[in-house]
């Protein structure tokens, strides 16, 4: 049964792999978001035109292009998208929800989220524990709040940094392949000692297979170079791999009918207890694929992926040490996370609760969940 299941799983994987590997019939790969990608080269005047409206409200910033080097010439919408022709009306100021004229202009210039309540729109702080929210959002909005998110980085950064993006997506920091491989092998879920699973998503937030552009030969395989990494199967579809009897002596007696999902005591009977110390004489009736039993490690990997996310998701932004964004910004955009100069050097003095020091007047200096600087 186990082998049969593994075979079915691999078959399913290879079908997915095959579908992904087929040549794309459309002449151009569809873009993740609808704003034009940032160009490699443009004049300063062209770039300024893509910032002009934004800067009527974002009157100051730390580095307008997020790059220290003035040779990098890009405007706000090259990275963020949005409408740079919208300007703040003279005299309109931002004083909270009552500033209708101001907010109307802001909403026109900004990209609207699908889930404003979850993002606490218009507040721009990273929401706490956003879990899969980025996967459910529209790529245009993902690009607006974080152009360096991997779902959209090809458009905002790809013209100049494509090789870095490709390497970053395949990095363990993004795929978590080693952790997933260890958990799957050690718990008997998959029979392989090399990694088969890894985290990756399409721009639309669907699970994606990572395919090595070079088909590794045997020598490369021996050195650990992988042909592909498949998405983690949905936890509710993975039966347990073990058929062990109840571990400990005594304990609860499981009757022959399995509880319904979400109806733990379907028969209405009291749960019987074995006498402690007496050996079990029954074989556990827990078997692969029966009674909606699932492989718990898969659920745990899924929970870890959300509670302690890697580069595809934001940090949990709920406590010191966990303030960060997703994608390239996970590492390259600093947040105030630690007050100890030994750990965070020059950033220690900015505290540990994710508050900003940005020159941008629109950004709250007291809210948690903002980058240290732009
Ligand atoms: C009418 C004023 C106004 C205009 C025009 C405007 N913004 Fe904003 N923007 C704001 C304010 C105010 C905030 C902060 C809201 C808050 O945190 O309460 C903000 C926040 C943001 C954020 C953070 C959003 C988030 O949820 O993380 C980004 C990114 C941004 N603006 C980019 C732009 C870009 C790019 C443009 C031009 C296309 C632009 N803005 C035009 C007023 C404006
Ligand atoms: C190289 C691409 C790039 C350009 C150009 C760029 N930004 Fe950003 N910006 C980013 C990234 C990446 C982030 C996300 C940081 C994060 O999520 O922590 C960001 C974040 C922001 C934020 C949110 C800050 C906060 O504390 O919540 C605002 C506001 C913003 N940008 C405004 C602008 C404006 C205005 C311009 C033009 C003057 C601009 N950006 C140009 C990449 C860029
Ligand atoms: C128009 C081209 C261009 C675009 C678009 C662009 N970059 Fe860059 N970036 C550069 C160049 C050129 C350098 C090297 C600058 C230097 O060496 O001084 C650089 C350097 C960097 C560095 C290294 C920082 C440093 O100080 O050396 C990071 C990180 C980076 N870019 C991230 C991004 C991200 C993330 C995006 C997209 C949100 C992006 N860049 C978009 C051209 C670009
Ligand atoms: C897991 C953390 C992490 C992530 C995610 C990350 N970087 Fe980096 N990046 C680094 C570190 C660390 C360095 C410095 C490496 C060094 O000095 O040898 C670096 C260096 C760079 C440089 C300078 C490279 C050079 O040759 O000097 C660029 C450009 C850059 N990163 C761009 C990006 C872009 C674009 C992304 C997103 C696609 C990204 N990084 C994602 C950690 C990260």
What's this, in brief?
With 374 residues, the chain is mostly helical.
What can be said about the biggest beta sheet? 2 strands, antiparallel
Question: Counting H and I runs of at least 4 residues, what is the number of helices?
Answer: 16
Beta content comes to: under 5%
Q: Which overall shape is indicated by the principal axes computed on the Cα atoms?
A: globular
Classification by helices and strands:
mainly alpha
Segments where pLDDT lies below 50 for 5+ residues? 1-30, 245-249
**Average of pLDDT:** 84
Helix and strand pattern: HHHHHHHHHHHHEHEEEHHH
Q: What's the alpha carbon Rg, rounded to whole Å?
A: 25 Å
Strand arrangement in the largest pleated sheet = 1-2
Bound molecules: heme C
Helix content: 25-40%
Find the count of extended strands (DSSP E, 2+ residues).
4
Q: Could you tell me how far the N terminus lies from the C terminus, measured between alpha carbons in angstroms?
A: 55 Å
């Amino acid at each position: 049964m186990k082998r049969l299941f593994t075979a079915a799983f691999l078959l399913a994987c290879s079908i997915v792999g095959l579908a992904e590997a087929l040549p794309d019939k459309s002449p151009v790969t569809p873009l993740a978001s609808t704003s034009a990608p940032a160009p490699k080269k443009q004049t300063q005047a062209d770039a300024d035109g893509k910032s002009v409206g934004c800067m009527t409200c974002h009157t100051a910033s730390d580095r307008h292009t997020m790059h220290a080097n003035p040779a990098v010439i890009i405007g706000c919408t090259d990275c963020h998208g949005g409408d740079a022709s919208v300007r703040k009306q003279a005299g309109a100021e931002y004083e909270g929800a009552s500033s209708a004229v101001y907010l109307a202009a802001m909403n026109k210039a900004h990209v609207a989220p699908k889930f404003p309540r979850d993002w606490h729109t218009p507040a721009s702080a990273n929401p706490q524990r956003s879990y899969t929210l980025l996967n459910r959002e529209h790529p245009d909005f993902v690009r607006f709040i974080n152009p360096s998110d991997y779902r959209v980085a090809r458009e905002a950064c790809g013209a100049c940094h494509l090789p870095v993006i490709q390497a970053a997506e395949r990095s363990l920091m993004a795929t978590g392949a080693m952790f997933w491989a260890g958990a799957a092998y050690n718990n008997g879920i998959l029979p392989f000692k090399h990694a088969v699973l890894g985290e990756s998503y399409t721009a639309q937030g669907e699970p994606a297979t990572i395919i090595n552009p070079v088909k590794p030969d045997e020598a490369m395989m021996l050195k650990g170079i992988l042909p592909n990494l498949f998405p983690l199967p949905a936890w509710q579809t993975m039966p347990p791999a073990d058929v062990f009897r109840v571990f400990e002596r005594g304990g609860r007696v499981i009757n022959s009918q399995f509880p319904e999902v979400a109806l733990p005591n379907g028969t209405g009977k009291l749960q019987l207890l074995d006498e402690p110390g007496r050996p079990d004489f029954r074989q556990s009736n827990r078997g692969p694929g029966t009674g909606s039993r699932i492989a718990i490690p898969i659920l745990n990997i899924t929970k870890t992926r959300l509670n302690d996310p890697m580069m595809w998701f934001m940090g949990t932004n709920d406590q010191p040490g966990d303030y960060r964004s997703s994608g390239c910004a996970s590492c390259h955009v600093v947040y105030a996370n630690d007050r100890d100069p030994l750990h965070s050097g020059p950033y220690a003095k900015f505290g540990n609760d994710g508050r900003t020091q940005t020159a941008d007047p629109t950004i709250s200096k007291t809210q948690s969940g903002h980058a240290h600087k732009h």
